[in-house]
Fold:
Amino acid sequence: MFESANLDHKIAKTVYQREEPKLREALLHAQYDLKEDGRFPVLILIAGVEGAGKGETVNLLNEWMDPRHILTHAFPDPSDEERERPPLWRYWRALPPKGRIGIFFGAWHTAPVVQRVRGETGEAEFADQLNEILRFEKMLCDEGVLLLKYWLHLSKPQQKARLKQLERDPRTAWRATDLEWRYFDLYNKFVRVSEPFLRKTSTGEAPWIVVPGADAHYRSLTVGRHILAALRERLDEKPVPRLPDRNPPLLPPEDQLNVLRALTLDQPTTRDEYRELLETWQGRLNLLSRDPRFRKRSVVAVFEGNDAAGKGGAIRRVTQALDARFYHNVSVAAPSEEERAQPYLWRFWRHIPRRGRFVIFDRSWYGRVLVERIEGYCAEPDWMRAYGEINDFEQQLARNGVIVVKFWLAIGKDEQIKRFEEREKVAFKRFKITDEDWRNREKWDDYERAVCDMVDRTSTADAPWTLVEANNKYHARIKVLETLVHRIEAALGPEKGKAKGKGKRAKRA
Amino acid sequence: MFESANLDHKIAKTVYQREEPKLREALLHAQYDLKEDGRFPVLILIAGVEGAGKGETVNLLNEWMDPRHILTHAFPDPSDEERERPPLWRYWRALPPKGRIGIFFGAWHTAPVVQRVRGETGEAEFADQLNEILRFEKMLCDEGVLLLKYWLHLSKPQQKARLKQLERDPRTAWRATDLEWRYFDLYNKFVRVSEPFLRKTSTGEAPWIVVPGADAHYRSLTVGRHILAALRERLDEKPVPRLPDRNPPLLPPEDQLNVLRALTLDQPTTRDEYRELLETWQGRLNLLSRDPRFRKRSVVAVFEGNDAAGKGGAIRRVTQALDARFYHNVSVAAPSEEERAQPYLWRFWRHIPRRGRFVIFDRSWYGRVLVERIEGYCAEPDWMRAYGEINDFEQQLARNGVIVVKFWLAIGKDEQIKRFEEREKVAFKRFKITDEDWRNREKWDDYERAVCDMVDRTSTADAPWTLVEANNKYHARIKVLETLVHRIEAALGPEKGKAKGKGKRAKRA
Structure:
């Protein structure tokens, strides 16, 4: 990967002085065209060896273009806010929206490479991280991000010369610290790790561009002209290139039997039983939420279900048991303008809780494979890839200690019409029923099919779906509470000195 | 993944008898349309739990369609031919060509899943295998293969019932052996391994379709109708969906300096020096080829270079040192009709040697990123992805003990014209010069650029490029021999009782 970059590339000062103003102007134009065009964001990663001019490049790009429309982020040691979330969270929240340029000075590759060089991670863990990066970058590209990755390189003699030079000049001596010299000692190891890393994370859509870093003029022209060419290519291309539809179809079951129809929607729980059970389970949930062991965990609860299935009521029975400082409700409707300018998972990543907290989603990222699929808001290749992307997302949460609990509240078609009509009659409930609900009802079968595909493709050991029979609201609310309690208990493990298994686990999808 | 499949799906016999003839006819039609259409191959994988009807399904598909145009393969324990090649070799050689249907009864997923269930592989190795599968399947899809993956499932009670039933009937008792019962004991473990496996290898383009296997009618209709729907969708869609062009451009270096221009093409080796060196290095190569340690290794040597750079002459100096029974020359020209009907790497996989052998490629898979790129025989997204695919291919070779040695023979533009003119003058050399050579020469700069991108993107620790200064043929031939010897020596390791390092290693790209 470094064959060309190891050569002594140079651009004469006179050439640079002649070319730089032209490049600068063209870049500024492209930046404004991008802003106007607004169809895609640009994300520039600046990475590479120490002393190869990464910082200078980031600064230069901000000088050349209008810095008000560039989102530049460096990622030093994570903050406590960041440490309490999955590693990718900090990058998600820094993503540039459509029409803008983001510059990441170091990014998701930094920690894996550095840890591997230091021997803190093994070959297997490294391969796993690399894989996660590949899937993440593929998702970004599929979402339309123009991802430009620059790896600034120095040969070993060049790195040495660079550090010596910095040392000699009192104005720059502070930049050649012991840390830099320690990196130099690791040079060979660094190259041995980063070579296969670059190779395996170079794809057709997001190849690493290795840039020789020793000569500032050469480096600057190379990065600048590549950004310009990539921007122009994408801007001048109408329409935006989309994923081809190469997906085999998903068909409904041949015998009409599915996980929803297999449910007994009417359950016998009475009001009196409900009151007693409610107290029991809310009490247990409250205790768990204050358990010291929970301070290292968090809960992401997802509520999906038919219209009028009672999601709101079930959620209230959960939050009643929680301290208001420690939970947050997220009601998901159509995305805002800001959210539409980002990859679709962005609006959910922003709400991922810190440790010790609950976040409750009333509708969620599953809209992608439900309403967006059914209404044609996204194309088939896009919702087909979403199953895998959602599984990746939830796996990242689960790996980071988040307990992911997902409910589908199911009611029958008759029960729904009863509830719709009741809502239309009762004045204070009328706001709950809209034309859209009636339209959705006409697509009952499409939704049923989409829900079954969703359960089959996203119910995982880490993040299983719980199907809740919800014709009887009492039953539904208790099953939700009980499931939550059992999932949290299972995640916390047995209390010290106590035996395992506090009760029968709620049946899951 | 198994939520729906765990339900007791059934199709009544009368329904099946009514539907089956219609389905059969439609499948047969689709098969013939596919043959006529000839734009893409179909590869059907039949996998899943023991007793779920995999064999029956394979047989049925062969009954329903015209078996003369179906390539059915099972993959029992590998033959010695297969064991001596990388694991994917056996699947490559069984791939169906365009216009045909291939059915694989078990495939590349079988061994990883089974080994993981048996605890023979760890989590990390499993993740690595899974990753290799993902990359392989993505390549197949990008090459236009319609990949249909069926996972036949039984719930635990269903599997038990099925085995009992087989046992009771003397005609089928042979199918419920101890082996099957041992699989049953592992049922839970099998599901725990296969669930995340299916999830992570399900992509939008090649999702696993989980098929409930207990009821033969249900299972057969499900698989048959899905194949039909997938075939029809792709057949009725013109043109074939292609990868979008979302690649940022690759630009030449800003200062015109590159790895080729950095070479000193004229080297001083004299005829007398050459004769002596030739004897020395051919002798060492011959000894190595007969070294007992070489019986577990093999060599794949790739010769690329400018037209008239002397590839043929260099190759002859190599083969002169080898026993004709143990090497094979592959001269790569335009692909045959059979080869064009396959993914582009197929025609090279066929020539991968057994252990203890040499295969020498005069031109190679690098045509994809050289002539095919330059002449526009393949689109930019296709040659851009090829760098990664080629690296994957060579990594598989290297992991399996193959020593991959790649030479670029470089001559100058002046030297080339001299040789062209000489060839035109000498009668017995005239066959070596064609109009194409002259046309290629006009694209000298394009080739130079493509070669540099190739070296930067495919020179790896396992499979480095060696750039050979070839204006002086003597030098070139000796460098080739010397490099080969050093690479083989390094791979075999120090001989017992001897010290390391037999001489200076040839300088590599």
Summary: Chain B has 20 helices and ten strands. Residues 13-235 of chain B form a domain with the Rossmann fold fold (CATH 3.40.50.300). Residues 499-509 of chain B have pLDDT under 50 and may be disordered. Chain B touches chain A through 76 residues (CB under 8 Å).
